[in-house]
Design goal:
Number of domains: 2
Shape: globular
CATH architecture of the largest domain: Alpha-Beta Complex
Order of helices and strands: HEEEEEHEEHEEHEEEEHEEEEEEEEEEE
Strand order of the largest sheet: 5-4-13-8-9
Helix content: 10-25%
Bound molecules: the ligand Nc1nc2c(c(=O)[nH]1)N[C@H]1C(S)=C(S)[C@@H](COP(=O)(O)O)O[C@H]1N2, molybdenum atom
CATH topology of the largest domain: Sulfite Oxidase, Chain A, domain 2
Structural class: mainly beta
CATH superfamily of the largest domain: Oxidoreductase, molybdopterin-binding domain
Largest sheet: 5 strands, mixed
Distance between the termini: 56 Å
Number of strands: 24
Number of helices: 5
Low-confidence stretches: 1-23
Length: 374
């Protein structure tokens, strides 16, 4: 049946009207930090829920996405008996499916707060999110190719190209043990739907607990090799000092190693910093996680760090998985504030001041907000 144009417009208006009337929705827009390529940040107010909706999930890419090619092959090669070339359908048909919930966080998340200032995308807290990812285990795929014992690193590449040949391509590698970890996936779905182009369609790597630079999008190859991948994105970028450094100090290349897990962190999603709430019971909420161990506890102080209260946790714990924390207290007219810190089950605690490092990675200082009480 063909709808008359008018009937169609009316129907569309009803649909739009209905979606607009949803109260209390946080602004459904990403915050753009630079024009090109895409570096889009999730507003803090989304971090009071277990899953970050895909349309407000942060986006980071060095060169912008390649064309959408749903039939793109993933080539598995290097030190293997039988190199494979499989598209997403073939992976789906051949290997067991796994769905996992994990935090995807850019190593540069929070870079803006490091003192002294560090060059790079000036992310606030929103270069992170949590989603469910569905795919197959990388170890199953490698096993099917017959990995040689000589292969110590898995090199990973995607279809996105640098803007000119003199700019290095985005090439990463992870140690064999991390590739063989059952949580490392080649995924085609995020939050129950096919990956969007921005998030890596048709296939991307999922490395729970490890910083986002390992989560290669638009996968084209996975190759077993003897050494860590060469090139700018392994040997220069995404490296962290092996010893603590004084803020602003230079670090010798030999004293840096590739990033792996992200440290423990909690952020406050609400109330918003600088807002106003009526006097009475205030609920403070946010998310907390660690890439090194399951979350242990989250503590909140509403008296600027004099006393701390253990917050209530929601959601399932796990390495590299966030839980929602909540704390209520009674606020009198005037002003109120909250500061939060998380501790994981290995005893790692969020520091009051984040460890400065030359690239401004892994900012995880105690997070605080203050607001007016009317
Ligand atoms: N092929 C490719 N994969 C990539 C990148 C990239 O530039 N190219 N950026 C990485 C970085 S630095 C991050 S933080 C995550 C961001 O993933 P998202 O855009 O899905 O949030 O993708 C990673 N995978
Ligand atoms: Mo990143």
């Amino acid at each position: 049946m063909r709808l008359h144009r008018r009937t169609f417009l009316q129907a569309a208006a009803i649909v739009l009207g209905a979606s607009r009337s949803i109260a209390d929705e946080a602004p459904r827009a990403l915050l753009q930090n630079v024009g090109s390529p895409q570096d889009l940040e999730t507003p803090l107010s989304w971090f009071d829920r277990l899953l970050t909706p895909t349309d407000v999930f942060f986006v980071r890419s060095h060169f912008g996405p390649p064309s959408l090619d749903l039939g793109r092959k993933l080539n598995i090669g290097g030190l293997v008996k039988t190199p494979l070339s499989l598209d997403a359908d073939e992976l789906r048909n051949r290997f067991a499916h796994v769905t996992t919930t994990a935090v995807l966080q850019c190593a540069g998340n929070g870079r803006r707060f490091h003192q002294p200032r560090v060059p790079g995308v000036q992310w606030g807290h929103g270069a992170m999110g949590q989603a469910t990812f569905t795919g197959v285990r990388l170890r199953d795929v490698l096993a099917a190719a017959g990995p040689s014992n000589d292969g110590a690193f898995v090199h990973i590449g995607g279809a996105d190209l640098p803007p000119k040949p003199t700019v290095p391509a985005f090439r990463r590698s992870i140690p064999r043990a991390r590739a063989m970890d059952p949580s490392t996936l080649v995924a085609w779905a995020m939050n129950g739907e096919s990956l969007t182009l921005a998030h890596g369609a048709p296939l991307r790597l999922i490395v729970p607990g490890w910083a986002g630079d390992h989560w290669v999008k638009w996968l084209t190859h996975v190759s077993l090799e003897r050494e860590e991948a060469p090139g700018f994105y392994m040997q220069i970028a995404y490296r962290y000092p092996i010893h603590p450094v004084a803020p602003g100090a230079a670090v010798k290349p030999d004293d840096m190693r590739s990033l792996t897990t992200f440290p423990v962190k909690a952020v406050i999603a609400r109330p918003a910093d600088g807002g106003t709430l009526p006097a009475g019971t205030q609920e403070i909420a946010g998310c907390a996680f660690s890439g090194e161990a399951p979350l242990g506890k989250v503590e909140v102080s509403t008296d600027r760090g004099v006393t701390w209260h253990v917050a209530v946790l929601e959601g399932e714990g796990g390495v590299g998985r966030w839980q929602i924390w909540k704390h209520r207290f009674d606020a009198r007219p005037g002003s109120a504030s909250a500061v939060v810190r998380a501790t994981d089950t290995k005893g790692n605690t969020q520091p009051e001041t984040a460890a400065w490092n030359p690239s401004g990675y892994f900012y995880n200082a105690w997070h605080s907000v203050s607001w007016a009480v009317s």
